[in-house]
Amino acid sequence: MSTDNRGHPALHAGDRPLGETEIVLAYCSASLAWLMGTLDKLAQVGANVTRVNVVAKCGKKPRASELPRHATVETVENVGRNDHTFARFLAARYCTLPASILFLKDTSMGYEGGDETVLAPIGVTRLAQGLSASRDGFACGSHLAGTRRSRLWHVAVEADEFQMDDYHKQHDQNSKTQRANVDAFRAAQRPLRQFWRAVFSPATHARVDAAQHAVRLVCYGGTFAATATAVRRTPRSDWIALRDALTRGDNIEEGHFAERLWAVLLSPSPSKSVVSAVLAGGAKAAMGKCGYCSKPFPGLLSKCDVAVLPPVPDDLSETEPDLAASSQADAPHVADGCAGTAASALAASAPAAG
Fold this sequence. Notes:
Blueprint lengths: L18 E9 L7 H10 L2 E10 L14 E5 L5 H13 L6 E6 L13 E3 L2 H10 L4 E3 L1 E3 L7 E4 H4 L15 H11 L6 H8 L2 H7 L6 E4 L5 E4 H4 L4 H10 L7 H7 L2 H5 L5 H11 L58 H9 L5
Parallel strand pairs: 1-2, 1-4, 2-3
Antiparallel strand pairs: 4-10, 5-7, 6-10, 8-9
């Protein structure tokens, strides 16, 4: 993937046209004043945005003046936050997806209250450019601060140990209240490994299983982009299962599990040569065992101190044209849950490559 002088993806002659594009925007309460200008910039990089799907969950709708004419606003039950919004869209639109989808939050132009010393947003336009330049049909909306790395490789077996044992609201000082919050927050199936095993089908297990794939991509921050082909690497039944797993409440551990699965669900499985290259670089990086990184980012193959990052591969497409080893597990499930003529139309219109 080529980059500009700031380390962001840059368009070139070999990039894939984004074509018909839709935005799925999880809305709570932040201003969307940035949206109209962003749509103009997206058009300049080849995204034909035909619809903006705004899903409001916090009892408040965005200002009409901040929305384009082709935006729809839907108010739904406040469960599962942005991860439920995205899974819900994929389950409902699996058979009628546009060529490209941008998954955004109302805070995607900057993490509200976030710690950008470790992760930082790349911006929506750069996200679209990243999807255009991607050979595997997926792009992440955050990168490791101070670096050019948006592909965050993890040791899969360590990433699978993620859970949030010490969660509580900062303003809750009462121990009984804290205990109640922790109990309400925790998932029945934990850590992450137990969650995906309980939710997904055997076909998806084969793509996530740490025993079969030693390293795994993770995209943090709840902002990413994917092609229709990438979405259909995972059967519709699994998107439905993920949607349903995120309905238990508003602030739940399952949402943090889903955040750590988007990249692996939407990307091809890494080939053996990619795994070897990633581990060779990451062996010098203490595998994220460095204070702040160890809890929220277990298995991350980089140190927290970005000044001493080793040369872990970012985008290996130039040396590894087929990022994934060809396998039936990665084949798009185009007809899954799409009956009759709809499935035939999808098969005819599906892109040849992500």
